[in-house]
Write a structure and sequence with these properties.
Largest interface: A-B, 28 and 24 residues
Number of helices of chain B: 0
Oligomer: heterodimer
Order of helices and strands of chain B: EEEEEEEEEEEE
Shape of chain A: globular
Structural class of chain B: mainly beta
Number of strands of chain B: 12
Shape of chain B: globular
């Protein structure tokens, strides 16, 4: 019973196309996060949310939008995908506080051609 | 701004070797410090954390001690196993419920 799930797990998109990555959590956590992982850069924060209806910009938000329609769901949207957005994307949830422990999903591998 | 530096990009050891992965941070105050582990094909998993000077965090034989004086949180394990092969991330917690991750260290343990 994975607490953070992501869909799709793999995606091939064309340049200029719209891509939506979805994340669902059953931890009942207030906070959710989107990261991308690239060799040599580790995990970089794209967007995050403190609860339904809220989205905040992370360190690398350009080219990405986020949507948090409910406590459980958090989406990452690439309106006009570019090859530089080829990466592995991870969603995480956390219950907040400066000692916030985050729990990650299995990742989505995105290839933009 | 807040940041974490992991100096080793890759570490190669044999089983029963001693492991040290270095982590240094830059931040004001006493941020929480974390270690995460990522196995191939999976998302990062929380390993342990510490939030006060001299506090030791530990899990699964791994440990690290929060050192405010040297701004460090080095990961150590006395005797590694092949199953410990993974990527290890040090992270720092900010006041905005955000984690700042280091670039990761890939550990390979040969039998």
């Amino acid at each position: 019973e994975a607490a953070v799930t992501q869909s799709p797990r793999n995606k091939v998109a064309v340049t200029g196309g719209k891509v939506t990555l979805s994340c669902n959590q059953t931890n009942n956590h207030n906070n959710m996060y989107w990261y991308r992982q690239d060799t040599g850069h580790g995990l970089r924060l794209i967007h995050y949310s403190y609860g339904a209806g809220s989205t905040e910009k992370g360190d690398i938000p350009d080219g990405y939008k986020a949507s948090r329609p409910s406590q459980e769901n958090f989406s990452l949207i690439l309106e006009l995908a570019t090859p530089s957005q080829t990466s592995v994307y991870f969603c995480a949830s956390g219950d907040g506080g400066s000692q916030d422990t985050q729990y990650f999903g299995p990742g989505t591998r995105l290839l933009v051609l | 701004g807040d940041s974490v530096t992991q100096t080793e990009g890759q570490v190669a050891l044999s089983e029963e070797d001693f492991l040290t992965i270095h982590c240094n941070y830059s931040a004001s105050g006493y941020p929480a410090l974390f270690w995460y582990v990522q196995y191939p094909g999976e998302g990062p998993q929380f390993l342990f954390r510490a939030s006060r000077d001299k506090e030791k965090g530990s899990s699964r034989g791994f440990e690290a001690t929060y050192d405010k004086g040297t701004t460090s949180f080095h990961l150590r394990k006395a005797s590694v196993q092949e199953s410990d092969s993974a990527v290890y991330y040090c992270a720092l917690g900010s006041n905005y419920n955000v984690l700042y991750f280091g670039s990761g260290t890939k550990l390979t343990v040969e039998p």
